[in-house]
TrEMBL record:
<protein>
    <recommendedName>
        <fullName>Retrotransposon gag domain-containing protein</fullName>
    </recommendedName>
</protein>
<dbReference type="Pfam" id="PF03732">
    <property type="entry name" value="Retrotrans_gag"/>
</dbReference>
<feature type="domain" description="Retrotransposon gag">
    <location>
        <begin position="13"/>
        <end position="104"/>
    </location>
</feature>
<dbReference type="InterPro" id="IPR005162">
    <property type="entry name" value="Retrotrans_gag_dom"/>
</dbReference>
<feature type="region of interest" description="Disordered">
    <location>
        <begin position="134"/>
        <end position="178"/>
    </location>
</feature>
Amino acid sequence: MYISEGNDSLSCKLFPDTLRRVAIHWMTTLLAKSIQSFNDLADSFVLQFAANKVKRLKVADLFDIKQAKGESLKSYLAHFHNATVRVNDLDQKFFVKAFQKGLRVGQFSDALALRRPSSMEEIRVCTEKHIGAEEDQADQLEAEHQPPGQRESRPRIQGGQQKGEAKHLVQALPHDNL
């Protein structure tokens, strides 16, 4: 709700209607007659909730994000994506360069460099394919290290379903239908 040039009394009465959960609780803890004007209310509110303000990042901050040793590609992509949503500049070429610069040296970073992606969407598609291969390889290694009697046969994923989706679907089916 936007109140333009309203009087203080009206602004103070309408302001609580714009609040939710914690902010409403805070409002109820204000001492009686501690607010003399809407500016007092606004200042108190900002002081109380200033720490909750999401810090905006600059494009240059993205170049500081690095894939840690042992960090999965999936984790790095999620970490990088969480940072990009906090950047005001929407120029994809900087996002792409920063993502590539932060990748650990390896087959995927080499393949991505040869591909020359122009958007984060292209990177996401390539990354998801590689993540799927990475997870399949990890599952295969895990299965090889289990004693033969304890090996579990897992359903193969088809039709582009993610592992979690397929596992959920298998668990959701009645066992007599399997």
